[in-house]
């Protein structure tokens, strides 16, 4: 890989640039009875998956099996899924290697799947083509026009501002060498401090905090040299801790499944270092988030599917950072499954088939966080913070939770995920310390994201993440300490070429 390539190296979640062979039809990469000619693939396939998050594919396959369905993954880079594919039986699903940035190629593959009933579309990058393909094939899916709006952070901000759901608005910054006009727009429409970012950006790439004129000029100069996925725009800088609301919507009704805490780097603006689920919010704050997120999603037109809604909890309440119309990355799905005691991927399959997801009403575990089972817009419960997670007593702070018993299926577990980054640029060769993880409390697990040989030139965003370390705890606080403690022993190795 070239040094320039290093700057597009894949990191956690769906933040990668898949390449790969176009149009070849193969199995899962191991000896597969289903590998081979196009006609052999997909005879049983009922649900296509247009790329996916790095983690969660095996849970998706299991959920499909429970529903009597079979998946076919369309991917331009199956290496992204090596961890997940390595856990699956060779014939657990079909995998088609295709240039997934080529919509016509994808359509051709979908057209060859004989009993296609649904399409799972769970990444930001493929959200728009996925919605358009679903519509073209008459499959259940979101309105492509809504998806176009949701994939435009500037459009969402302007819309929410108009509806009174965002204090500030956003302004598009015209490309070109003369930055004077852009600088004036930022000052006049948004004011300083401001955030400049890519309207379709992912992975915390191309995001600048500007506090004064000098920083504004520098950011505009730097942005002019970057290849953006969308267009540059500016919005107000929001002050406060970052969280995300994990939600599920159907027929316009939204359920808050829980809130994820997000610890940001002190060194690099926007880079995430740790996620924890669920956050123990006081009941009034949780109710406020619940109400706010339902109104934000309704205003943005998101009426169906998961959403991962990042927000800053300012002194004046929640303010949106961005809406991702999918399950969260960096093991957010895994965290929810463990904490809620239900497999949220069943809902993904339900919705791909156009069925109301049972999760909208399912009683979830009574873990040390959110566990609502009532209410029209979702989660209403919080638990105590004692860590005595087995019984209904742990949810006495609200009294709204219809608890379930402490069966294995519902045993509450909080989780925390540390994003592990190299300490310096270089060529990534592997990770040390994984072998010691079993001795740590919290059952820490390593989820690798970076392939050996990846050149890392820039440590400032999530593409530089070597892998995720997830640990559990009886409370979210304990899960965080378990994860952070275990992470101290895990070290990415970089060669000395740089
Ligand atoms: N208006 C804002 N005020 C304060 N911080 C912001 C703002 N916009 C973005 N950020 C910070 O920059 C980070 C990246 O921005 P954003 O989430 O819009 O981009 P992204 O590339 O989609 O990120 P990711 O894929 O990591 O979620 C946010 O997580 C947040 O920490
Ligand atoms: Mg974000």
Describe the model.
The protein is an alpha+beta fold and 498 residues long. The protein has helices at residues 3-6, 57-66, 82-87, 103-111, 127-136, 144-150, 153-162, 180-190, 213-224, 283-300, 332-340, 345-352, 476-487, and strands spanning 25-26, 47-50, 71-75, 94-97, 118-120, 171-172, 194-198, 207-210, 232-236, 242-250, 253-264, 272-277, 305-314, 317-324, 414-420, 426-432, 445-448, 455-456, 467-473, 491-494. α2 packs across α12 (345-352). The strands form 4 sheets. Strands 14-13-10-11-12-15-19-17 form an 8-stranded antiparallel β-sheet, with helices on both faces. It has 4 domains: 3-141, Rossmann fold (3-Layer(aba) Sandwich), CATH 3.40.50.20; 166-236, 2-Layer Sandwich (Dna Ligase, domain 1), CATH 3.30.1490.20; 242-395, 2-Layer Sandwich (D-amino Acid Aminotransferase, Chain A, domain 1); 414-494, ATP-grasp fold, B domain (D-amino Acid Aminotransferase, Chain A, domain 1), CATH 3.30.470. β2 (47-50), α2 and β3 (71-75) form a beta-alpha-beta unit. Helix content is 25%, strand content 22%. The model is unreliable at 1-39 and 366-410 (pLDDT under 50). The longest helix has 18 residues, at 283-300. The relative contact order is 0.12. It has 13 helices and 20 strands. It is globular and about 60 Å long. The chain binds adenosine-5'-triphosphate and magnesium ion (MG).
């Amino acid at each position: 890989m070239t040094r320039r390539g290093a700057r597009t190296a894949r990191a956690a979640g769906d933040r990668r640039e898949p390449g790969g062979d176009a149009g070849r039809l193969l199995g899962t990469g191991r000896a597969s009875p289903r590998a081979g000619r196009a006609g052999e693939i997909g005879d049983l396939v009922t649900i296509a998956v247009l790329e996916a998050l790095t983690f969660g594919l095996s849970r998706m396959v299991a959920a499909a099996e429970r529903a009597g369905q079979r998946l076919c993954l369309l991917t331009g880079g199956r290496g992204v899924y090596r961890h997940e594919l390595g856990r699956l039986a060779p014939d657990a699903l079909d995998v088609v290697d295709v240039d997934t940035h080529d919509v016509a190629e994808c359509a051709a593959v979908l057209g060859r799947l004989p009993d296609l009933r649904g399409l799972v579309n769970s990444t930001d990058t493929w959200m728009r083509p996925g919605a358009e393909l679903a519509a073209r094939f008459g499959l259940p899916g979101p309105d492509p026009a809504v998806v176009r709006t949701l994939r435009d952070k500037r459009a969402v901000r302007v819309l929410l501002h108009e509806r009174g759901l965002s204090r500030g608005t956003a302004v598009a910054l015209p490309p070109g060498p003369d930055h004077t006009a852009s600088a004036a727009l930022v000052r006049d429409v948004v004011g300083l401090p401001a955030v400049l970012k890519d309207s379709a950006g992912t992975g915390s790439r191309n995001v600048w905090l500007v506090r004064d004129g000098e920083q504004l000029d520098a950011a505009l100069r730097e942005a002019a040299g970057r290849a953006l996925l969308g267009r540059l725009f500016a919005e107000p800088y929001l002050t406060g801790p970052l969280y995300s609301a994990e939600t599920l919507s159907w027929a316009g009704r939204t359920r808050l499944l829980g809130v994820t805490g997000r610890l940001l780097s002190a060194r690099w603006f926007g880079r995430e270092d740790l996620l924890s689920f669920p956050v123990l919010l006081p009941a009034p704050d949780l109710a406020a988030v619940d109400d706010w997120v339902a109104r934000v999603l309704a205003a943005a037109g998101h009426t169906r599917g998961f959403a991962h809604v990042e927000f800053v909890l300012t002194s004046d309440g929640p303010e949106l950072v961005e809406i991702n119309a999918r399950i969260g990355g960096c093991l957010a799905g895994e965290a929810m499954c463990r904490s809620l005691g239900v497999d949220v991927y069943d809902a993904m399959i339900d919705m791909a088939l156009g069925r109301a997801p049972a999760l909208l009403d399912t009683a979830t575990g009574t873990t040390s966080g959110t566990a609502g089972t009532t209410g029209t817009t979702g989660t209403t419960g919080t638990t105590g913070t004692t860590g005595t997670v087995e019984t209904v007593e742990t949810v006495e702070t609200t009294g709204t939770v219809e608890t379930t018993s402490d069966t294995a299926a519902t045993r509450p577990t909080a989780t925390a995920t540390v994003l592990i980054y190299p300490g310096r640029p270089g060529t990534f060769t592997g990770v040390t310390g994984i072998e010691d993880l079993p001795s740590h409390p919290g059952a820490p697990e390593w989820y690798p994201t970076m392939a050996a040989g990846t050149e890392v030139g820039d440590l400032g965003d999530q593409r530089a993440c070597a892998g995720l370390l997830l640990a559990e705890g009886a409370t979210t606080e304990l899960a965080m300490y378990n994860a952070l403690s275990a992470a101290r022993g895990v070290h990415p190795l970089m060669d000395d070429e740089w």
